[in-house]
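Notebook, p. 212. Picked up where the previous page left off. The plan for this session was modest: take the two constructs that came back from the sequencing core last week, fold each one, and keep the raw output in the notebook itself so nobody has to go hunting through shared drives later. Recording the first one now, exactly as returned: residue sequence, then the structure token string.
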Amino acid sequence: MNCIGIRGTLHRLDPWFFPSEEEYNELLKSESFDPSEVTLVPDMSDEEAESIMDEVHEICKVDCRDSQGNWAMMYMRLRFSAVLRI
């Protein structure tokens, strides 16, 4: 199962959701803001991003590939119950 797809679907509950400019604009409007500007600003160059992805690929392949070379990712959920102190 694709974790990125899950995040996209549950984005309103996910602190790691990174909306597009259009999505963020709509989210702001839906909360009664009038956005004057929404712009995505990359934090790194394409070359830096590619280097990071290569490194992550190398690190993850040890745990995320089976003996035939197929990729799979384990998905773990944190569940909890809590009571609000008054």
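Okay, moving on. Second construct, recorded in the same format:
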Amino acid sequence: PPAMPGLLAPLTLSAPPKILKPRGEVSHLNRGGYNLQEKLGWSLSEYEEVRSFVIHLAHEHLNVRRSWKRQLVPKLLLVFSEAKSHYPVLKAYKDDWVVSDFLHVYLKNSSTQAN
């Protein structure tokens, strides 16, 4: 059917594709891993601000004497949710990998020191 003058076709708005996690493991540079700050391309102050907030959330909701694998999933989901709420830029990263990386590194260090 012919288009009626003055009517626009309905807009189909789709969210931009999410940013995928790089290959390898965070901080394992000698084994094909990556430097998180470098991959994000954030300034040092932005990186440190978000990292500090994620660590604050870890202390608030997680058992920092336990490794990543020993955390309760609902508590991790709460940390992801609060981090994205406070820093909406984190919503652009697929499967919360940025917050997950901050937590992996922090919990590895904090759980090792606790033992």
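Notes on construct two before I forget. Residues 3 and 47 are 50 Å apart (CA to CA).
Flagging for discussion at group meeting.
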